[in-house]
Design goal:
The complex is a heterodimer of chains A (about 325) and B (about 400). By secondary structure, chain A is an alpha+beta fold. Helix content of chain A is about 15%, strand content about 35%. In chain A, a hairpin with a 2-residue loop joins strand 13 and strand 14. Classes of the chains: A alpha+beta (about 325), B alpha/beta (about 400).
Chain lengths: ~325, ~400
Amino acid sequence: MSEPNAQVDAAIKGMVGTEYGRTYSWDPVNQPMIRQWCETMDNESPLYHDPEFARQSPHGGPVAPPTMLQVWVMAGLKNRLPPGSTTRSPFEAVEYLRANGFPSTVAVNSEQEYFRYLRPDESISFTAMLESVSDCKSTALGTGYFVTVLMTFLTATDEKVGTMRFRLFVYKAHKEFKPAAAAPADAPAKPSRPHPGISQDTQFFWDGLKQNKLLIQKCKGCGKLRHPPGPVCPHCHSFEWEALQASGRGTVHSFVVMHYPEVPGFPPENPVLLVELEEGTRLVAGLVGIKHADVKVGMPVRVEYQKVDDDLVVPVFRPV
Amino acid sequence: MSQHPLSRRVAIAGVGTTEFSKNSGRTEIRLAMEAVLAALADAGIDPSEVDGLSTYTMDNVPEREVFRLLGGKKLKFFSRIYEGGGAACAPILHGAMAIHSGVADVVVAYRAMNERSWYRFGSGVGGWEPGPMVESVHFGWYITHGLVSPASWIAMAARRYMHDFGVTSEDFGRIAVSARDFAATNPAAFFYQKPLSLEEHQKSRWIAEPLHLYDCCQESDGAVAIVMVSAERARSLKQKPVLVAGAAQGMADDQQMMTSFYRSDISALSEMKLVADQIYAMADLKPDDIQTAVLYDHFSPFVLPQLEVFGFCKRGEAKDFIRAGEHTRTGRLPVNTHGGQLGEAYIHGLNGVAEGVRQVRGSSVNQVKGAKNVIVSAGTGVPTSGLILTSE
């Protein structure tokens, strides 16, 4: 366990409360950007696409989606700020930590608050304040500081139109990150899901899934089925076994919706089933095809196969 | 009186604890030594007399280091019992066996962890390279689907228990509310003077549905130690002897660690039933003889089937028992009078043994009147252990 560095600690705490000058936007709120953003986000509301609909709406004319708030002040691909913007980075605390032993950064959360809709041609700028820096914390990722920056968005007449509280974790990783192999430049980043430990006793099960087969271990001595697989039959102690292909039909024996901690590669609300197969064995598996709020114990389900990557296919079940 | 050769032959003569916090600010070995020395002082036994030590897995403090710092010269018995919190009562069984058989004279059980400030004990498994070792293969059946935490494994059994017996999230909440009520009047508890309402429980965020945040125990820094000697020796020491009337460990059908999902009834706690049958037989007592119980509450749902396996109500009827408030301050069986691991601290069950001792001594801050026989249980859903402590 590394002790927090007292000097870094004092310096970073001393920055809390610092206010940063204005950062301007390259372009005013504009219809082409709204259209592109809505296409990307799958937002098909006529309010943002149909000027006539917007005119007849309570807004009386075109407006921008409130969630575009930060879009208008983004620095762009070259990371250059528009003329007149402050030269002092609102994220100087993060930069300080990076230069002083906490090289990694992860965005933790972002809370936005909107006071009104923005209209085309409004020019938006923002000011920032370093709202808080946590004590030195140890998380699953590493040891470091939670840094919260409060951004306030203003119009050209200094009207406050929204805020954004952006929280980052600036840390030193527990162990050095070693990429397994360089990913092709055009491959989208994909969070990897946990992989199982596989032994000689269980290899057949995971190999079966890769061929879209759900296999159950069957004792050659007494014929009993068993899952999870093991080297010997608990009933007759025969070491001889074969793999039986399951029909894939079963019922939900129980289920969990996993919320916290979030597990990389899974949705934030992850439903997980305990399925009782019609052959009599049970297994844990994922759920597809239904909202988790609609799952019921006893619900009939059928297996499908989900490819995680070249090394792993997992069983998932869909209600029938 | 019991015919069992081990019953009431060994006594708990001393208890020591540190404060319970979220950041102790000192090392685990230091916490261990503070608790062990406090327990020995409580008993009135010189540290040089310790010839046995016992703890259970997931503790990072080696027996040899505790013994070295005690300045000991002859340690004849040391056992580290598997299964983490499931073994919380097991050092008392092992210590009793060692003392009664003559292997050792003074055995100290201890637990010392910075499980909040040094690491996050409840965050679950993962982050290792998968391999063919038994544990890696075992966790593979769950982590590949995102079930990585103790809360998620318990939630699977809890959901089925709700379905089978018409139990609700509010029933789980009633366990947490009562625990926090006791914690509110226990100055040693993290949640001292901080009671919880059922409404607050219901509004708290989901961790692993059907478990809310307040169904989950704390992560705590702290240490507890328990000193055992023969009953005969205990009678000449400082404290009123607390006899080990019953002590047992148990594993049962198709046993796994928190994921016994493959047995016919996944919420029946058959390993705890085995423990209950053994300790009642060993102590020659029955449920009606028990005045208060410390039932392991890493997660509130499993307190309910424990009430059933220990015979305080029938299978499926624990919800009625708790809806009637029988587990509260004014009920027939006050449960977890220290505030439990939900309210006092999560010292992996050994703080529950300490509360059992205090109830028998008559020195609990939430003393149950006439408490003579007290049940203490260890981790549920895992290979487990349990005790009946009693006065003479």
